[in-house]
Write a structure and sequence with these properties.
Pfam families: 5-FTHF_cyc-lig
Strand order of the largest sheet: 3-2-1-6-9-10-11
Distance between the termini: 52 Å
CATH class: Alpha Beta
CATH architecture: 3-Layer(aba) Sandwich
Strand content: 15-25%
Catalytic activity: (6S)-5-formyl-5,6,7,8-tetrahydrofolate + ATP = (6R)-5,10-methenyltetrahydrofolate + ADP + phosphate
Largest sheet: 7 strands, mixed
EC number: 6.3.3.2
CATH superfamily: NagB/RpiA/CoA transferase-like
CATH topology: Rossmann fold
GO molecular function, one term: ATP binding
Number of strands: 11
Order of helices and strands: HHHEHEEEEEEEHEEE
GO biological process, one term: folic acid-containing compound biosynthetic process
Radius of gyration: 17 Å
Shape: globular
Length: about 200
């Protein structure tokens, strides 16, 4: 007798949105990336910031490279996440340039080779751009399930001090309502190719 694995609502949403995202054509991805860049160029969160953490796109995520290239042109400092080698489930942020030596992490995602001289403490960043799988009308964010960004953003969630968190997503990643847990950190701003969503924070 075969057994079926029952997926949680979060797992079902994650699968559905990832499938939609991965189905986008190269032309659609390129257009979305250019529209996202235009939205970011109009956002004071980017124009006011000097030290900005981003990420390299993976798994059908919206391409962040045009934004990174623009920030370099503006002489701003860009940082990428690196899986912490000793503290499981945590991230470090390393300064990233066009000549940074890279390697694949355990998830197959390119990240800078760890060099302690390039680490920027998260509290010294102005802006952290977070990846996400889905988001809803209240700013709740559904990630891949590792909790890396929830842990990174927990101090901001409690104190509302630096760094400011901002999500980036395709238009298709919006869902009406996400089931959420106590440890989930909702985002105050999420930028898509079509628009910028903003929510007030208590």
């Amino acid at each position: 007798m075969s057994s079926t694995v029952t997926r949680s609502p979060r797992q079902l949403i994650r699968h559905h949105v990832r499938t939609q995202r991965q189905a986008l054509t190269s032309a659609q991805q390129h257009q979305a990336a250019q529209q996202l860049l235009q939205q970011c160029q109009q956002s004071h969160h980017f124009t006011d910031a000097q030290h900005i953490a981003l990420y390299l796109s993976n798994d059908g995520e919206i391409d962040t490279q045009p934004v990174i290239d623009w920030l370099w042109q503006q002489h701003k400092h860009v940082y990428l996440p690196v899986l912490h080698p000793f503290s499981k489930g945590h991230l470090l942020f390393l300064h990233y340039t066009s000549t940074t030596a890279m390697q694949a992490n355990r998830y197959g995602i390119q990240e800078p080779i760890l060099d302690i001289r390039l680490v920027k403490p998260a509290r010294e960043l102005d802006l952290i751009c977070t990846p996400l799988v889905a988001f809803d009308h209240t700013g709740q964010r559904l990630g891949m399930g590792g909790g890396y960004y929830d842990r990174t953003l927990a101090p901001w969630h409690h104190s509302r001090q630096h760094p400011y968190p901002l999500g980036l997503a395709h238009n298709c990643q919006f869902v009406e309502q996400l089931p959420h847990e106590a440890w989930d950190v909702p985002l105050p701003t999420i930028i898509t190719p079509a628009r910028t969503f903003s929510w007030s924070t208590p």
